[in-house]
Design brief:
Layout: H1 17-36, E1 39-42, E2 46-50, E3 57-61, H2 68-80, E4 85-89, E5 101-111, E6 122-125, H3 129-142, E7 167-174, E8 177-187, E9 190-197, H4 207-219, E10 224-227, H5 233-238, E11 242-252
Parallel strand pairs: 3-4, 9-10
Antiparallel strand pairs: 1-2, 2-3, 4-11, 5-10, 5-11, 6-7, 7-8, 8-9
């Protein structure tokens, strides 16, 4: 359940956005990993979630000044992954070019404290397994997560995820049919969004905007950050997000 931190900052400076997003992302992925029983490794400069061949693993860089030994540890984690591996580096501090990984950049974006408008379609904050599985299927379809096929309920979004502090899942519906989903995370006075997705058959109906709007309303007077895909950036800008800095991502092919 989201909680509004009264001691949270009223504004996120653009220079601080990579660090704030890094911390929030680590909160989300550690919560997901813990909920499904993955190993969660917490170090000064990174957090790693070591999953299975289906769920994959993720390394979340937390500091821009990795030491040589910390870089070597990240390399070992990538080499030892049993399934898909993703490395999020909002500081562009790592060079993993020696590994057989794809690399690209996406911007970290910031939304300062401002009023949020209620969604124009029905949105529920997920509270049971039925809605959670609907969100899970939407995200698997939207992001073409082939490693989760054939579908196994609760593998991407374990039921225990709903019990994690500050984590909420949202589903938008049209005439009772799920058409969009996202995860919202509030931690340390900051909100962020993950897995904002709409299945191909339901796109261009405003579902992505609806689930984000609902979560922003629930966040109340908190600033928010996110890492934007090329396709998602126009939506985020229309909701009041501005560019902060590029984030470098690496992923297995």
């Amino acid at each position: 359940m989201m909680t509004n931190d009264p001691d949270g900052p009223d504004r996120v400076e653009l220079a601080d956005a990579p660090t704030r997003q890094a911390r929030n992302s680590a909160t989300f992925w550690a919560a997901t990993g813990s909920s499904r029983g993955d190993e969660v490794v917490r170090q000064r400069a990174y957090v790693a979630v070591v999953g299975s061949a289906r769920t994959g693993s993720r390394v979340l860089i937390q500091e821009p000044d990795l030491t040589a030994s910390e870089c070597a540890e990240v390399l070992d984690l990538v080499r030892g992954a049993s399934g898909p591996m993703t490395v999020e580096d909002p500081f562009s501090a790592l060079d993993l070019g020696e590994l057989d990984l794809r690399s690209w950049q996406m911007p970290v974006m910031v939304r300062q404290v401002s009023p949020a408008v209620a969604p124009a379609m029905d949105v529920v904050r997920v509270g049971d397994d039925t809605d959670l599985q609907a969100a899970e299927r939407i995200v698997i379809d939207s992001f073409d997560l082939t490693s989760f096929e054939p579908y196994r309920a609760g593998e991407l979004f374990p039921p225990a995820l709903l019990e994690q502090p500050g984590v909420d899942v949202y589903v938008a519906t049209v005439e009772g049919q799920p058409v969009g989903a996202c995860v919202a995370v509030v931690a340390d006075g900051l909100g962020s969004h993950y897995w904002v997705g709409t299945p191909s058959a339901s796109r261009s109906r405003g579902a992505g905007r609806a689930v984000m709007a609902a979560s922003l309303v629930d966040m109340g007077g908190l600033p928010a950050t996110l890492t934007a895909s090329r396709l998602g950036r126009p939506l985020y800008e229309s909701l009041g997000y501005e560019l902060a800095s590029p984030s470098t991502w690496w992923a297995s092919r």
